[in-house]
Structures are given as structure tokens and as C-alpha cells.
Amino acid sequence: MLTLTSKRQATFPKETCESLGLKPGDVIELKPRNEGGTKVWVLRPQPARTREWIGCLGSRAKKVADHSLAAIRESVAAGRKGGA
Q1: Domain count, the chain
Q2: Which pLDDT tens digit goes with each residue over 25-79?
Q3: Any domain includes 24
Q4: What are phi and psi of 20, to 5 degrees?
């Protein structure tokens, strides 16, 4: 049995998560299906999304040690002038 919160969130029992192989952060698909004239809902774990794009611009970024607000403003000003 599940109870929805006011934000439409539900907590699955531990046994259900274990039998589905679900871990925190996993994505599941919920689809309706007609079984003998009755609407039932099917849960399926979805494959993890790949995030190959994370860090892909690292080779193009300049290594800057100073992350102060003054340094950021200076960098933005240089970029606006075309001197970045």
C-alpha cells in the first residue's frame, strides 16, 4: 500500500524496491495496461541516463585559480570587450 503526500510523492516498500532492483535516484516508468477489461499500472525500471556531456568543455576552459567576485567581473568585462 502506498500513500501520496500533498506533493504527489510516494514511498515504496523496501521489498518492492529490492525486487525491482531500484536504488535512490533511479528512474521508473509507469504505464497503464488493459488486462481483461481492467486498467492496471505497470512499473518498469528505466536504464540510467548517460551524461557524457558532463565535463566535455573542460579542455576548452582556462584554468583559473581565482574565483572571487572581482575576478568573475573582470572576466565578464573582458569577454564583453572581446578580449577573453
Answers
A1: 1
A2: 888 899 999 999 999 999 888 877 777 777 777 777 777 678 889 988 998 998 8
A3: yes
A4: -85, -10
In the chain, the amino acid numbered 63 is: K
Distance spanning both ends of the chain, measured CA to CA = 58
* Contact yes or no for 30/43 (Cβ under 8 A): yes
Model pTM above 0.85: no
Range of the domain at 35: 14-45
Give the single-character DSSP code of 58. G
**What is the C-alpha separation between 75 and 63, in angstroms, rounded?**
13
Is position 68 within any domain?
Answer: no
The answer to whether position 39 is within a domain reads yes
Q: CA-CA distance, 79 to 72, in Å (whole number)?
A: 11
